């Protein structure tokens, strides 16, 4: 071994952990790290705002199961990045945010851009650490990666004093971290089998993170063997294929009332990986708290999540990998009646098949159904937050594994940077971002990032000139008293073209298919600007109806 400065040691740890790409907004507080990244083989994406950079890193964590890595500078750089940290926490996504810090000798003087990162991020990260000694970088970076991935995944924030990065040390690299898996004890597996054998109306709700394609395949086989309807929790559509005959829908915003009724009627409800938090539980009204009518099994990789809200009849601490391997050992003694599953499936098809018309020339449901019927199975769809996403939830059918990136935290601005990372990570796959006008403008400066790095993401921006979700609630609570929800938008086509992107305005659904194919063929970052009547507030209602005028 030879002496290396802290920055070189840090970059070598990233390489040891298999980091293939990272995002950043550069800052003087970690110049030595930027220098050490030259020639490292790590694909460094230079972003235009730290919120977009951290959301891209979070999307990498969703896509790969390994921590997304983001570098930002101290003070305002770190606070801008907090948006992505919050997404990673609520979405249970592995992520490591590296933050430049003031020199160690300047602490506690409110030096330039000084922050106490443990205090700032303590409520939204799994762990926050400041590395004071260069020879501890391998130890603490390895721990950061393990904490980010293990149990319930989430974000870790690592502060890097700028003078520490210049210190020399002779220290070995840490080995690549592989998170520990947990599996159900044999007694719990046997008890679950007994509960399934007795149940007449069993149902599975699947969600959370740490799912893999093999675990998904074993879950499908389990559902087939036991004739189980399977639903996914909020914005987890990529876990279980909607094309599978066991799939019964999702618990996103605007979920089917029939699906909610079936969950309430089930005599055995199995939660796999999901926390079933506010949106998926219909504001905690879907299940009784602390217990429900009918048996409840809760499986989660973090024991602290089991019984946090719902007290289960059987709690199992297991990762999806460990759980589904155990499920492979359970087989019914006799064929089961499939009528319950078939009814749940039929209700889902009825809910999502035929597009409902909305006011105006551009038809949202038809557009989403066109994407559903024309995108390949492995296409990745992303969206941020806003009422426009309710059409995606209802009508799109995610068929390939891990093909949906959206924030369960409800963070506006997520879809566009997530789409950029998805396309950068999967250059040979089609990636489409569906964004609202208010949603896109939260992180729209990353269009410059798309142009700079040549990332041909297709973005469909739905422009209704309002903050639609807030207007919906406003009209419900304060009819005809609009406040702070109207928007003045740029000419999105001119804006996108000014970055060198392909762009068209699509005013009617009949124009959309050809415009989409032109965008795809361009090989450029592409934007389709789709004006939507403000009246079309959701698949199920209009503003007039909310005001009681219909």
The proportion of residues in beta strands is 15-25%
What separation lies between the terminal Cα atoms? 76 Å
CATH 2nd-level architecture of the largest domain: 3-Layer(aba) Sandwich
Name the strands of the widest sheet in spatial order: 3-2-4-5-7-6
Structural domain tally: 3
State mean pLDDT (0 to 100 scale): 95
CATH-assigned homologous superfamily of the largest domain: Thiamin diphosphate (ThDP)-binding fold, Pyr/PP domains
Per CATH, what is the topology of the largest domain? Rossmann fold
Text of the CATH class of the largest domain = Alpha Beta
Give a quick account of the main beta sheet: strands, pairing sense, barrel closure: 6 strands, parallel
Provide a count of the helices.
20
Q: Rg to the nearest angstrom?
A: 24 Å
Q: What's the number of extended β-strand segments?
A: 20
Helix and strand content put the structural class at alpha/beta
Shape: globular
* Fraction of helical residues: 25-40%
Task: Describe how the helices and strands are arranged.
Layout: E1 4-5, H1 6-16, E2 21-24, H2 31-37, E3 43-46, H3 50-64, E4 68-72, H4 76-90, E5 95-101, H5 117-121, E6 127-130, H6 137-149, E7 155-161, E8 168-169, H7 186-198, E9 202-206, H8 213-226, E10 230-232, E11 247-250, H9 257-265, E12 268-272, E13 295-300, E14 314-317, H10 320-327, H11 339-352, H12 364-374, E15 380-383, H13 389-395, E16 404-405, H14 415-425, E17 431-436, H15 437-443, H16 447-453, E18 458-463, H17 468-477, H18 492-497, E19 502-505, H19 512-522, E20 526-531, H20 543-546
Parallel strand pairs: 2-3, 2-4, 4-5, 5-7, 6-7, 9-10, 9-12, 10-11, 12-13, 13-14, 15-16, 15-17, 17-18, 18-20, 19-20
Antiparallel strand pairs: 1-8
Helix pairs in contact: 1-2, 1-6, 3-4, 3-14, 8-10
């Amino acid at each position: 071994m030879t002496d290396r400065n802290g920055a070189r040691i840090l970059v070598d740890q990233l390489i040891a952990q298999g980091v293939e790409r990272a995002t950043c907004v550069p800052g003087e507080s970690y110049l030595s790290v930027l220098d050490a990244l030259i020639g490292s083989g790590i694909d460094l994406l230079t972003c235009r705002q730290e919120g977009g950079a951290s959301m891209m890193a979070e999307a990498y964590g969703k896509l790969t199961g390994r921590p997304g890595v983001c570098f930002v500078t101290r003070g305002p750089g770190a606070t801008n990045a907090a948006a992505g940290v919050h997404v990673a926490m609520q979405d249970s996504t592995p992520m490591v945010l590296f933050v430049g810090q003031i020199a160690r000798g300047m602490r506690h003087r409110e030096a330039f851009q000084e922050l106490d990162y443990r205090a700032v991020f303590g409520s939204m990260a799994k762990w926050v650490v400041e590395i004071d000694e260069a020879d501890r970088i391998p130890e603490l970076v390895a721990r950061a990666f393990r904490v980010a991935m293990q149990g319930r995944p989430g974000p870790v924030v690592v502060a890097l004093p700028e003078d520490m990065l210049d210190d020399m040390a002779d220290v070995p690299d840490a080995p690549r971290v592989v998170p520990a898996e947990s599996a159900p004890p044999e007694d719990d597996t046997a008890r679950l089998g007994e509960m399934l054998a007795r149940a007449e109306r069993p149902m599975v709700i699947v969600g959370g993170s740490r799912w893999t394609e093999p675990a998904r395949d074993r879950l499908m086989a389990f559902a087939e063997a036991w004739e189980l309807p399977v639903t996914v929790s909020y914005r987890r559509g990529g876990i279980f294929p909607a094309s599978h005959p066991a799939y019964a829908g999702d618990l996103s915003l605007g979920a089917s009332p029939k699906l909610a009724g079936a969950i309430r009627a089930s005599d055995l409800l199995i939660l796999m990986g999901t926390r079933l938090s506010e949106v998926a539980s219909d504001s905690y009204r879907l299940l009784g708290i602390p217990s429900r009518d009918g048996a409840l099994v809760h499986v989660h990789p973090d024991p602290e999540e089991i019984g946090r809200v719902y007290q289960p009849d059987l709690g199992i601490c297991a990762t999806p990998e460990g759980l589904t391997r155990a499920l492979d050992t359970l087989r019914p003694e006799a064929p089961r009646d499939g009528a319950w599953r078939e009814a749940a499936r039929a209700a889902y098809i009825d809910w999502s098949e035929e597009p409902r018309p909305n006011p105006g020339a551009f038809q949202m449901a038809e557009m989403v159904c066109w994407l559903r019927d024309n995108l390949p199975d492995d296409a990745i769809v992303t969206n941020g937050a806003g009422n426009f996403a309710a059409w995606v939830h209802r009508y799109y059918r995610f068929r390939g594994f891990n093909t949906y990136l959206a924030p369960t935290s409800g963070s506006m601005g997520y879809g566009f940077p997530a789409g950029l990372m998805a396309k950068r990570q999967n250059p040979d796959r089609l990636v489409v971002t569906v964004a609202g006008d208010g949603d896109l403008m939260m992180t729209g400066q990353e269009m410059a990032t798309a142009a700079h790095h040549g990332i041909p993401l297709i973005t469909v921006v739905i422009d209704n000139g309002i903050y639609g979700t807030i207007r919906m609630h406003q009209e419900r609570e304060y009819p005809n008293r609009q406040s702070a929800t109207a928007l003045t938008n740029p000419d999105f086509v001119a804006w996108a073209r000014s970055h060198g992107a392909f762009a068209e305005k699509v005013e009617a659904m009949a124009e959309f298919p050809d415009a989409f194919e032109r965008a795809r063929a361009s090989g450029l970052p592409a934007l389709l600007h789709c004006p939507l009547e403000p009246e079309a507030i959701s698949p199920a209602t209009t503003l007039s109806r909310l005001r009681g005028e219909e």
